[in-house]
Design brief:
Number of helices: 17
Distance between the termini: 24 Å
Shape: elongated
Radius of gyration: 24 Å
Number of strands: 20
Largest sheet: 8 strands, antiparallel
Oligomer: single chain
Strand order of the largest sheet: 9-10-11-12-20-17-16-15
Helix content: 25-40%
Strand content: 15-25%
Length: 571
Amino acid sequence: MINTNFVSREDYEEALLGLCRPLKKYYTKGNTGIYIGYTSAHYGDKIIGLEAYSRILWGIVPYMVLGKTTPLDEEILRGLRNGINPENEEYWGTYEDGSQAFVEMAVLGFALLMVPERFWEPLSGEERRMFSDWLNQINEHEISDNNWLFFRILVNCGLRKNGGCWSEERLSADLARIEDFYLGDGWYSDGKTAQRDYYISFAMHFYSLIYAGVMKKEDPERAAVYIQRGEMFAQDFMWWFARSGEAIPYGRSLTYRFAQTAFWAALAFSGSEAVPWGILRGLISRHFRYWFRQPILDCEDKLTIGYAYPNLNMAEGYNSPSSPYWAMKSFLVLALPKEHPFWKSEEKELPAREGVRMMPHAGMLVRERKNGHVMALTSGQYCAWKPAHYAEKYEKFAYSTGFGFQVPRSYRTLEQAAPDNMLSLYKDGYWHVRTKCEAVEITEERIVSSWIPFDGVHIETELSFEAEGCRCRHTIQSDGVYQAAAAGFALPFSEKEELVWEAGEGIASIRGKKGSCGIIQTEGKADAEFIYCEPNVNLLYPRTVLPCLQMTVRPGINIVEYRIEGEMNTD
């Protein structure tokens, strides 16, 4: 069983080791890979094995900083020796531009920076050469023009520190290119994209703060800038977390789960004291406790693909059985010495958060609710390369730590589309939802966006907070007659018998053992309906019911306005 207390440093160590132990029997003969599942990803099996080998190191390397050993130490070193050796049958390989293997090299660069006595010094001269040669492939190829640049930065910094072969030209160019992604106010973009999701926290800031922590002597000015940006970002990012520890489910790569708090671990690692240690300690500990109360592990205590429970439906094509172990990034806190104030401080609650927090770089208005959960209104983000369920992960009107959000099984029926916090229009046998905003304006009071679900229909949507819910107002300009459905939050349930609902003209509300939610029309005419959604579409709950309003959109201008309400029980 995994230790889920997360009170003492020893609790964190036990949890890390508890996640590592089940993997021991799944190593390959030469220990170069770990194979723990049967599902696939868009890259090959060899890299899937390398992915598991490397990603657990994000937790193991910080644990090693104080000289401690793990049950996997022998396998890790033996696997490294075999993986870098072109003459070995388990050689990790040579790669082309953009290979997933470049992602997995980053932690080995990190290991060379943090614990060279475990990953460099045990190697012979010839082995060090082979290690340099294998890692240097990242300098010989093009990689994604986004957070991947930090993978090459870490590799080059690690090789430089240990006298390996590295590229000064690549390192300088990559550090300069990162500056092009800085937006201001502590926010980056992940490349030249319209996405502002967890890749800003557990990638752009995470790696930059590691750089700041290990390169202060060599590059003090840049290190100071990275820390300053992280401190500014922290003021916004703290609003993404509920008082009970969970973060807003939003965007892609959510199967990395407790990597959501990796930013806070990296902020501590960088030496920043901008967030009081007690608040930081409480935020991280509550987050870990939340996740390990969820059924995210299989019967052997291995991490699964999914979010709050095993769920392939919500995953992206780059999620292999190994991928969830990027969550190990948050164990970076184990690199902090035992006497560090992080470990010596008592946990404290989050500071008071009143009113609405406007985050223009993210296209969000965020508010804490009375029960400590967090709700975000959003418009304007767009994932141009269209990973699975990109509309649902970025384009819903509202996201909540209490209700989560839903992804479709298909768009054929409302039960399969399960379109919580969306306005859906039916045409040609499909329900169409917002996938991209044509224009967005954001103020502290509201977000206004314009979007086109299909040719012939143009919609302007205004979102604003109201009481304990939010208001949605849609001005729909249509060239024909279409059926439409508006929905708010989806309510989880165990048995249908526990549900009590109220339905009437323009109102659909429902309550159960786990909470309540509803949608109330304030302008227009609609019929109430309750949709029993397909199982496993919600990221937090495997079974949900969705109150919605169905209406007819007619040629010309149509006004649809409604209020969304809902509250989850916190006990």
